[in-house]
Design goal:
Elements (H helix, E strand, L loop, with lengths): L2 H9 L10 H19 L4 H6 L5 E8 L3 E2 L3 H10 L3 E4 L6 E2 L4 E8 H31 L6 E3 L7 H10 L13 E3 L1 H9 L5 H10 L8 E5 L2 H14 L5 E6 L3 H13 L7 E5 L7 H5 L5 E3 L2 H4 L6 E6 L1
Parallel strand pairs: 6-11, 7-8, 8-9, 9-10, 10-11
Antiparallel strand pairs: 1-5, 1-12, 2-4, 3-5
């Protein structure tokens, strides 16, 4: 299997995040139930005071910015769950223009008003993440480097799915998913008197190889990266092995890749760069030939895509 196919197989879990997946749907139900409980509580006091007659109404969701739409499946599911009808005009991952209609909602006015903001919040955040991801994916066209999210999320699976809709990779969905040996794990081994924590940690992780999607270790210098690659090659594990090059400059990454090639270690591992990667410098990382760049800002500092749900006569 070539590296690009292996990257996709290793890092991509986005296709599992759909309403036909019982685990995802169960999580989604809990998420929306909690949002509704906290927002509506014992009732929408404004609507109760103003709308003495709960007539049927219609609301139209339109975009105020161009971008990539995300969250249509989830928001429409939520509205339908509360007795509303939804007519959909745009699909998830579709590029939309300012002023486009995403969907129309029909039902009792009080039900529309009680649910509009919760669904809209999901759509705006997911669309914002999907839009930024697509921008970065387009920026790296012509390079083999892929964009990935990390676990710095506000709305876990929704944020991960939004990255997927934008054309990015989800990475781990949670701690239960795969093994990622971080600096704190290595520091704990050092404190226990382990002289070679990188090799020891990989040895220990290899005992769980049948339970995980992949095994990854974070390194901060060339010496540890080469040690990790040698250990992975020695073990010949049946799952993908990844070395994260954390907070390294592109020049350092190029040197490590050259060293891995010269030592016949390159084909034993996948390589991920993370830390201080931005819109402005991401191409410099792609030029090194790194397999994946993972970015925290995609999900922890997401800028929403502006849109509105307006009631009409």
């Amino acid at each position: 299997m070539d590296r690009e196919k292996l990257v996709e197989l290793t890092y991509q879990r986005g296709r599992e995040l759909n309403l036909n997946n019982k685990i995802y749907l169960s999580w989604l139900k809990k998420f929306f139930d909690q949002e509704y409980k906290e927002d509506v509580g014992f009732g929408d006091l404004t609507s109760e005071a103003i709308l003495s007659i709960n007539k049927r109404g219609r609301a139209v969701l339109r975009t105020k910015q161009s971008g990539v739409i995300g969250g249509v499946d989830e928001a429409s599911w939520f509205y339908k769950k509360h007795g509303l009808e939804v007519k959909i005009y745009a699909q998830d991952s579709e590029e939309i223009k300012k002023g486009n209609t995403i969907f129309e909602v029909y039902g009792r006015q009080k039900d529309i008003l009680a649910t509009e903001r919760i669904g809209l919040n999901v759509l705006q955040r997911m669309s914002g993440i999907a839009t930024e991801t697509r921008y970065l994916v387009d920026l790296l066209r012509g390079y083999k480097t892929r964009i990935a999210a990390i676990r710095k999320t506000l709305w876990r699976y929704l944020d991960k799915k939004a990255v997927f809709l934008g054309g990015g990779l989800t990475h781990r969905l949670g701690l239960w998913d795969s093994i990622l040996i971080k600096d704190n794990h290595l520091e704990a081994l050092k404190n226990d008197g382990i002289k070679n924590p990188v090799e020891k940690a990989i040895d220990m992780a290899s005992m769980f190889v049948d339970k995980v999607g992949f095994i990854e270790i974070e390194t901060t210098n060339q010496n540890d990266a080469i040690k990790a690659a040698r250990k992975f090659k020695q073990l010949k594990l049946k799952k993908p092995c990844i070395i994260m090059l954390d907070n390294m400059r592109p020049m350092e990454i190029e040197q490590i890749i050259e060293k891995l090639r010269n030592d016949n270690l390159y084909d034993s591992v996948l390589l991920e760069a993370s830390g201080n990667i931005t819109r402005e410098n991401i191409k410099d990382f792609a030029k090194t030939g790194i397999d994946v760049v993972s970015l925290g800002y995609l999900t922890h500092s997401a800028k929403v895509l502006d849109m509105s749900l307006e009631m009409t006569v």
